[in-house]
Amino acid sequence: MRGITAMMNVLSVLVQPKDMLLLEKNKEPAKEQNCTTPHLFCYPAQSNFSGTKYPLSWIRKIKARELCPVRIPGKWFVLLDAAAFVSTSPLDLTVHTADFVAISFYKIFGFPTGLGALLVNNEIAPFLRKIYFGGGTAAAYLAGEDFYSPRQSIAERFEDGTVSFLDIIALKHGFDALERLTGGMENIKQHTFALAHYTYTVLSTLKYTNGAPVVHIYSDTDFSNPDVQGPIINFNVLDENGDIIGYSQVDKMASLYNIHVRTGCFCNTGACQQHLGISNEDIKRNLQAGHMCGDDIDIIDGRPTGSVRISFGYMSTFEDAQNFLKFIIATQLSKADMKFPSQPTPTKTVTESEESPMQNDQTSCHNADVLSMKTIIADTGPWNNSSAMLKTTRWQPPETELERTRAAVFERAVPVHSSSNKPISVTNICLYPIKSCSAFEVTQWPVGNQGLLYDRNWMLVNQNGVCITQKQEPRLCLIHPSIDLKQKIMVIKAEGMDPIAIPLEENLEKERQICQSKVCAHRVQTYDCGERIADWFSEFLGRQCHLIRQSSDFKGNATQKHVKGQAPSATLSLSLVNEAQYLLINTASILYLKEQIIARLEEPLETEQLIQRFRANIVINTMEPFEEEEWAEISIGALHFQVVGPCNRCQIICIDQKSGERNKEFLQSLSNARGRKTHFGIYLMNQSSCSSSSYILSVGSPVFPMLKESTKIQCPPSNEEKASG
Ligand SMILES: *Cc1c(COP(=O)(O)O)cnc(C)c1O
């Protein structure tokens, strides 16, 4: 906007909401004037950051010169950005006669994306100038001369090019379905506001044992009036010390609960700066520190770069709101603390004898359950009482001093010397021939230029060619590929299926079907392994899929990857992995983590089983846990590796690799054990320039680490782990 107006020599002036509200209060009578210079005032009917609704009365007042955003003679027009507003609020254009109104249809009924509308008041339409024209907008024009006469109708004149006619057909059905399902926008407004009000009320009352709030909510209202507040809650989660838990962390945990949250600054840097107290200088400095809009660097120098937003739409239910609250409570509570205190609390003693068996039941079993909280809230009357009740619950396990120190040390580890002189060696080597399927463990294995030979050479895709991972299909870990180098075949087994074999030699026939696939935004060339194989996998998984293989003869197959400390031109060749050639984990770190998880789960857990969840290529064992995070380079036998960075874990570690069952506790435990981070293991890149398969990696080979020279501030890696493949 600023660029466009500057090009036309028009000044654009920033007006803060608070200035407008102030002007409205101390309004002065408008002076009569006959200046007709046009000015345009643009504002959102609802903030997409906080859900604050700005007064629609501004439209009339500004046009009537009762309210003047900038003291300048001329005639004011108003553009209302109603994109966020109209998704849950009625907008009567006969009352609020803005000159321009921008809306976006997917925000109203979820479909079709990419289609919006600019409504233009017929009175102002004749004044609009065109600086470009595309097909269909001209009544007549000349190729050889500067002659263009636009069509009469305003829509025809401005709809340049071919309109999205198929999507436009869908609009009528969208509006009809919305009306049929909800009975109209006023109902949607009341329904969504009620959900937001409930969620806000519970959320803002949650406290840790020490009285510290669990979330900081960014809002301009107290959610008491749907005319000034839309159904949006924007917040950051805090720990019991009041420190912010980064939005990426919250996002990752929410995904475990099937909750989608928006995080970051929501393309609304103004509101974000205002609510989070980020200065212009901070924004520039954060960019230099490597933070970009939309990445997962959520905290810099202890301060947030963004926040978490939840929104309610017409299809949201009370259960959705409860599930969200359950998620916040469960992730901020340890299992041991999920019980309400067994001794009656002061508020409870009063009502205890009158409790119905059902309420009794609810308060005694699933006590982190918001439902029971609601019962208590309803029973004990004033909200204050129940918040006192909540406070008596221990919301956070008292972290032992040792653990706390430990977490702090890991955060800013200053490597000085290796903690032990005991030789380190490779204890296990695993490859994952088919991305996301089971591991194939070996005692020695040739090294190729993309990692272990045949590691992640194949992957499964759906009918649309999109990679299927364990995230969507946990049963992939029940598929066991193994490779016979002598017979040059890969044999694939799965329970209840006859084993099937695939030749390792690449099918180089002309007619093979080359297709492009996307792995973590990188394009790779692949080819289909055929119908016979596809049928085998489709039968086992009970869904249509194809096995595809990365093609090795295609130029440009090497994925460009920028590696820290290397010239950007350095090219790293990757297979169908997401992140790096090798992933290394340390059994000492596994054992440390195991203790933590057992404490949380109160169930036995096998080390072997835990190792499998982290889907590493190389397993080693050192004296100290997390020693590996202090390494810059390592040599294993004749091979030399550079450490690319830590591996940031996702929900795949929640899947038991033997059974395919999911358990959220694992990511939660890792996060707790690592001081809110989910790093585990390190990525390696083979530096031997002449990497050829003449190198063999063997179990028992000695490992020689080289420590980082000095402590550098490390940016968290931006991508998800390799092990998701
Ligand atoms: C979503 C939104 C936009 C952008 O609309 P798109 O159709 O997603 O490009 C603009 N303004 C506000 C207030 C919004 O909420």
From TrEMBL:
InterPro entries: Aminotrans_V_dom (IPR000192), MoCF_Sase_C (IPR005302), MoCo_sulfurase (IPR028886), MOCOS_middle (IPR005303), PyrdxlP-dep_Trfase (IPR015424), PyrdxlP-dep_Trfase_major (IPR015421), PyrdxlP-dep_Trfase_small (IPR015422), Pyrv_Knase-like_insert_dom_sf (IPR011037). Transmembrane segments: none annotated. Residues 548-706 form the MOSC domain. It catalyses: Mo-molybdopterin + L-cysteine + AH2 = thio-Mo-molybdopterin + L-alanine + A + H2O. The modification N6-(pyridoxal phosphate)lysine is found at K107. Its cofactor is pyridoxal 5'-phosphate. One of its GO terms (molecular function) is lyase activity. It is an enzyme of class 2 (transferase). The active site is at C267. Belongs to the class-V pyridoxal-phosphate-dependent aminotransferase family. MOCOS subfamily. Sulfurates the molybdenum cofactor. Sulfation of molybdenum is essential for xanthine dehydrogenase (XDH) and aldehyde oxidase (ADO) enzymes in which molybdenum cofactor is liganded by 1 oxygen and 1 sulfur atom in active form. This is Molybdenum cofactor sulfurase. It comes from Alligator sinensis (Chinese alligator).
